[in-house]
Amino acid sequence: MKICVLGGGVVGTTAAWMLSEAGHDIVLVEQSKRMAAATSHANASLLTPGHSMAWNSPRAPIDFLKSWLDRDPVMKMRLKSLWKSFPWIWHFLRRCPPQAVERLNGLLLRLSLESTEKTEALTQSLGLDVSLDSKGLLYWHGSEAGLEQDRKHADWVSRQGLDARIISADEVLRLQPALADRRNPVVGGYYVREDRVADARALTHQLGIQLLLHGQEILCEHELQGFVKEGGRICAVRTNRGEIEADAFVLALGPWTGQALRQLKVGFPINPAKGYSMTLSLHEEVAPLQISGMDADEYVTFAMLGDRLRVTSYAHFDGFDLSTPEGRFARHRRAVDDNFPGLVDWTAETKKWCGLRPMSPDGLPTIDRVPGHDNLWLNAGHGYLGWTLAVLSAEMLRDRMDGVTGATPDGLGWRW
């Protein structure tokens, strides 16, 4: 079967790879000049089964309202984006009661753990260089109140079978000696052995090379402009460079998936959540961080990618705005200097970036046929766990398209 996969980020590219390995002919279509140019380009680079929580909670509505009073909130929905988000908000609120949240968190953890294991196995089997670090992740605190919140989460995660535990300040410093110079001393941390660091863009590019070596086709600078339909089937997609015919089509367009489906008069609640990252060089005489992780009080992540440091924060629901105002990076720089004074060479080149997480109302991807379209499939809505869930999602999509019974668990099908 010839399959056209639309979207050359990590989710679309892993899907194309799994479908190729199953014997299908693939044409992978990307609107940018190169693959992994959008959400997968410079994300946090963390695979986090031990921190895979839905953003839904009984307190979430109050927290969103409070964010409008905060001068620099980590998570916020802009008022100008509010009216466009009503369908998404309705679905989100329906999943905020405690029982719904418990179910979501349990499913997210199981999926994230399995996908992280599969991601590590894939990189090793293909010999991919993705700066993989398997030492686990450390989430440290400078306040007892924050540590107490993670203690409750660690207890729950450990009951699910992960090596997740609260550790003392001394244990934090043994894992991360660079925190000894932190301006506000750590009081403890949350360590998860199963969490990982890896570069999503590197994996996407190298899987793309593997696809080409296997005789598959990649078309960059092809922007989706519409669909050619015949009854309940898609015959071709229209792009700025002509039509592309196939037997089946996969939409893996991240936050732009909803826009594509609107052309077919199909509503799909997906909301872009904007994050910002900086990729930094270290002073030559300074050793890299021994373990990656997060300042859990400030919600700033740190990932060592070879000799580079990726620093990431924020989740702002601000439509499709891709501007990078300088003030948005003050939190990143402050977090670097507060946690690791003297680590970063601020005179060297600093790469600043923003990306849009494709947030579904429940944090789970949709892996299913599009209603009313027999040969159009979705693999979208992974939210902030797109990198964590990409490989398992690709396998589930492959199995669904190949007719394998029970290929996806309840909760990942069309539910909108």
Describe the protein.
- The strands form four sheets. Strands 4, 5, 6, 7, 14, 15, 16, 17 and 18 form a nine-stranded mixed sheet that branches. Strands 9-2-1-13-20-19 form a six-stranded mixed sheet.
- It is α/β, with parallel strands linked by helices and 416 residues long.
- The model has no long low-confidence stretch (mean pLDDT 97).
- It has helices spanning 10-21, 60-67, 79-82, 86-94, 98-126, 144-159, 169-175, 200-213, 257-262, 330-339, 386-401, and strands at 2-6, 25-29, 46-47, 75-77, 137-141, 164-168, 188-192, 196-197, 217-219, 224-230, 233-239, 242-245, 248-251, 271-281, 293-295, 300-305, 308-317, 351-359, 366-369, 376-380.
- The longest helix is centred in the N-terminal third of the chain and has 29 residues, at 98-126.
- The protein starts with a strand and ends in a 15-residue tail after the last helix.
- The protein is built from eleven helices and 20 strands.
- Helix 1 (10-21) packs parallel to helix 11 and helix 5 (98-126) crosses helix 11.
- The protein is globular.
- The chain has two domains: 1-68 and 81-136 and 197-271 and 361-416, FAD/NAD(P)-binding domain, CATH 3.50.50.60; 137-193, no CATH class.
- A hairpin with a 2-residue loop joins strand 11 and strand 12 (242-245).
- Residues 2-399 form the FAD dependent oxidoreductase domain.
- Pfam families: DAO.
- GO terms for molecular function: D-amino-acid dehydrogenase activity.
- InterPro entries: FAD-dep_OxRdtase (IPR006076), FAD/NAD-bd_sf (IPR036188).
- It comes from Aestuariispira insulae.
